[in-house]
Amino acid sequence: MIRFQLDPNSAKQTYILSKALSMEMEGELMKDSRKDSKGRVLKDGESQRKDGSYEYKYKGADGRRHSVYAGTLKELREKRKQAEKNVEDGILFVNQNILLNDVFDIYFSGKTELKESTRSNYKYMYDKFVRMKFGMRKINLIKYSDIREFYNYLINDLSFKPNSLEIIHSLLHPTFTLAVRDGYIRCNPSDGLMGDIKKSHCWEKPQRHALTEAEQAAFVQFVSTSPIYSHWMPLFTFLLGTGCRIGETIGLRWNDCDFENNEIFINHNVIYRFRDYDGCRFRLTTPKTSAGNRVVPMLSEVREALLQERENQKRFKLKSPTIDGYSNFVFLNREQNLHNPMTINRAIKRIIRDHNRDEVKLAEKEKREPLLIRDFSVHNLRHTFCTRFCENETNLKVIQEIMGHSDISTTMNIYAEATAEKKKNSFVNLEGKLRLS
Predict the structure, then answer these.
(1) Residue 278 needs a FRET pair 20 to 30 A away by CA distance; which of 16, 290, 373, 430 works?
(2) Under 8 Å between Cβ of 249 and 235
(3) Is the pLDDT of residue 425 over 80?
(4) Which of 176, 156, 155, 157 is nearest to 166 (CA)?
(5) What is the residue-wise DSSP string for 37-97?
(6) What DSSP letter does each residue of 260-304 carry, written as one string?
(7) Nearest to residue 79, comparing CAs of 37, 38, 45, 32?
(8) Under a CB-based contact definition with an 8 Å cutoff, are residues 317 and 430 in contact?
């Protein structure tokens, strides 16, 4: 910088000062006016490389130096705008090869609160359906339409049901959220996607139905009198008479049954899951939620079923296996092992099939409409118990504690569904009794 000490009142000296400043500014302009091979002025950070391509160097939001490259100056300016926007929004590592798998692994390693069974199931689903293909994509290049295409592939090609797809979405959506918070991407490309999928596929999450009183009676009657299926009756009686989850039921031990006070203590759960290091095994774990630790009163029918099961074990000399240090289990199969939930569901399918087949023939013979049992799984028996309970009990807190619901809204929803039909029936009795006209 040229500095002068001149008398500002002198016109000659003023002229000399302005001339010097002009020459200095022109020199600085000539110094910064770099041009490309076509004579176009390059801005700060821009340069043309020996091969004719262009480069823009800048300091990223991570404090490091980064570069973007382009074949033309126009393309470079567009990339420059995007880079400047990324810096302004705090987006990091824009040019790094960060994969969806990389961010998922960071997200999943932080989910320390998950139970082992849940963690194992989630990891299995991600590794089997996401990791090897979709998970290999760069996360900053994944768009909303890409995820929608992937979900449609799962539905159309792999026949995914709503529950399975929601598991995948419950893993991907928070992974993208983490990517946003850590500065890898600007926005979550999976936002609102499940609503779009449900609408486009006319999906409604299936509601588990309770057996009607007629269906329940038909089911119990058929199983109890069947020479093929009657051995299942103690297990089904327990499920219908306690509302226990299937994992709580197959994990029940004789130590948990107090026949003196007619109480059943639910304090653990048995799961059948795949683990990387030892395959599919029964595992003992805590109840699904803290509310799962509870005491269930023992109905007389349940007491008889348990005593019958104990007699069967003695007669067939069944010896209980030991699982994670626990033994003395109540419900055993003929191979002296615990019942696999999938095996129970397959038995239920066969029972429904055979009952409906026989009922159609009998109804045709008796010239009446057949009473067919709708398709259901073992969990519907829990829902059936809760429905019968709600039909006869008004204290929601008692129902919640017996069912082991952690959220009262779950109890309230079942209660509302169960009492709706009862309300209609009660109004039938009011016909002509209110003197309205």
Answers:
(1) 290
(2) yes
(3) no
(4) 155
(5) TTSPBPPTTEEE-TTS-EEEEEE-TTSSEEEEEESSHHHHHHHHHHHHHHHHHT---TTS-
(6) TTTEEEE--EEEEEEETTTEEEEEEE--SSGGG-EEEE--HHHHH
(7) 45
(8) no
The reported pLDDT for the residue numbered 11 is: 58
CA dist list (Å): 291 to 253, 286, 287, 288, 395: 19, 11, 8, 8, 17
Residue with tokens 């960071």: 106
Q: Is the pLDDT confidence value at 275 over 70?
A: no
Residue 29: pLDDT band (50, 70, 90) is very low
The DSSP bridge partners found for residue 55 are 47, 69
Dist CA 234 CA 309 (whole Å) = 6
- Amino acid identity of 284? L
Q: Is the dihedral of CA 241, 242, 247, 251 positive or negative?
A: negative
* Cβ–Cβ < 8 Å for 331, 338: yes
The greatest distance separating any two alpha carbons of the chain, rounded to the nearest whole angstrom, comes to 128
The whole-model pTM stands at: 0.68
